[in-house]
Amino acid sequence: MSVAEQHLKTGPAKADAVEYHVDAAAFEQDYLKPIHKVGTISSLLLTFGMFLPAILLYLIYGHSPAWSSIATGFALAMTYAFPFYISEPIAYYPIVGNAGWYICANVGNGSNLRVPCGLVAQQVAGVKEGTREGELVSAIGISTSALISIPAILIGALLINSIQQFFPEWLLSAFKTYLLPSVFGAVWGQFILRGWKYAPIAVALVYIPMVLKVPGAWNILIAVLGTMLVGWAMLKFFKIQA
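Given the sequence above, the corresponding C-alpha cells read:
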C-alpha cells in the first residue's frame, strides 16, 4: 500500500454522504511527481511525433516548405490559438487538475468531453473542484473518458463512410448543424446549475464582443476572464456567492 493510500481517509459526514481527505505530503510525493514525470515525457514525445511526418518528408525526399511560409502559417495559427493558451488553463485547471490537463492537452476534446466528465465525477463523489480530493476524482473520470472515447472514435472513423449512407439527408444535415452546439449547450447548462448568478454576466460578456465584431478567439478570452473577475468582485465586495 502506497503512502497516498494510507493517508486517504473516508468518514461519513452525513448519513448519505462521504467526506474524503487526502494528505498533502502524500499527494505531492505519490501523485504529483509521477504525474508530472509521465506527463512531461508523453507531451514531448507527442510533440516530436507531430513534427515527424515533416521531418521524414525532408530526410527522405528532400522537400520542405520555405521559412517564410512556416512563419506565415505559425502567425495565422497563433492569432487563433493564443487566447486559448490563456483562457483554457485558467478556466479548466480547477476542474481537471494536473493529470486531467495533461490528458486534455495530449488527447484533445477538453472543453466538450474531458471537462464535463471530470465535473460529473466530482459531483457524483461529492468533492469540490480546486481541491486535492477533487483533482484525484477528476483524474479518474477524465482518464476513463479517454480510454472509452479513443477506441469509440477509431471505430467510428473506420465505419462512418459505410454507415452514413443508410441515414437520410435531413438527419446528416442536423448532425452537422446542431451536434456541436448541443454539446456546448449541455456543458453551459451544467455550469449554470453550479453558479446561476454568474450566468447573466457570462451571457453579456459573450454577446457584447460579438456585437462589436471582436474575433471569436478573443471573445472566449474576454468571456472567461471577465466572468472570473466579476464573480470575484461579487463575492469580495457584495458577498454574493454562486
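Residues 1-17 have pLDDT under 50 and may be disordered. Try to locate this feature in the C-alpha cell string yourself.
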